[in-house]
Amino acid sequence: MGVFIGPSGARLSFWNRQGSSVRHGCLALGYSFEGTGYNMGRVSKSVTTDQGATLNNEQRINLLLQQSSDNDIVMYVLCRLKPNLAAIENDKQRSSLAAKFHIDTPPFDKIFRQRLLEQIRKCKSKLNRDLHELQIHESLQEDDGQARELSEIPVVPIPRFNLGIESLNELMGQDPLTGDYGLPYGICVAFGAPAGIGKTRLMVQVAAAVGHPLSTEDEFGNNGVLYIQNEEKLEVFRSRYAKSWSDEHRILLSNSDDLLQHAALIDKHRPRLVVIDSVQDTRQARLSAGTINMLKTYKAIATSSKCSFVLISHVTTKGEIKGGTYPGHKVDIELVAKKGEQKGVFSVRCPKKNRYGPSRIAADFIHLDSGVRSMGNIYSLDE
Prior knowledge:
Layout: H1 19-28, H2 57-65, H3 71-78, H4 91-100, H5 110-139, E1 160-161, H6 166-172, E2 183-184, E3 188-192, H7 199-210, E4 225-229, H8 234-240, E5 251-254, H9 259-269, E6 273-277, H10 290-305, E7 308-313, H11 326-330, E8 333-339, E9 345-350, E10 361-368, E11 371-374, E12 379-380
Parallel strand pairs: 3-7, 3-8, 4-5, 4-6, 6-7
Antiparallel strand pairs: 1-2, 8-9, 9-10, 10-11, 10-12
């Protein structure tokens, strides 16, 4: 590829399969050019004003990224704009362009170049994230927005799957048509618990049941479990629960802390259950308004793919799920674990919200050498 960009009124020439993308981006920045390449005619267009001069680098990068996803191309174009000449490593090119801009040749600034590269990466990551979320939300627009008579809307059962522990299935609710208990497909569950209570051990046992070696694809084409945790190395995590999981279990482990990568893994492997342990360790949760945007995205993925999420969360000193009111608004079921008076005993409670069953109920569990066991039927928190 060869590229040359001059000031307003000069020409840009390049040879690249993606040349047309760069061409559009450069025209938007206010540069004229001519270019050749695959399926490209010879083009020459004059622009009288330098529109790019009124933009900052972030705006320029975003504009270029809309035309080309190649970081090298974006960087090549960007550092040949007048404000960024110091990012060009080649002394001869930098001097030549400075002369065309009628300015003194700036010295090469390695740190400035690194900052530009990092800014491109950040802008590209944000653009990809925004595009992904937009695609997900667009895919959810199935209804036409029109009002319909009740007789026109069919009453259908809500499919559920077994979590391997009877009282935990009951906490999730019962389908009124089939009478089945269990976790509904395509929903998000927030599960808050204090440190040391054994929430991970409980979810490992659930994963073993859902990802049983003999499990088969469901009606949505999903199967198995994707368990995401980044508190320890995968080898250590796998070794700790070697007795719970065999190599034949349909379970995938990941230590990714990136929401976009989570979405890619789900799209590739089509799990029935996704466990995020924990949501506070996800990179996007540490950003401003990151928690609510993250929960929106997980919810959208669950709805479109019909996989279900258990989002393990830290809790406040009051025993409530961290994140204010956000988790309660954006998830379908909210569960909280509480330590019991006896050693190894804890309860899992549904204190506020369950779209698919009753709330204000709880079940008690106990840690044994053989695993987590239920201590009886569910009971009301109001008794």
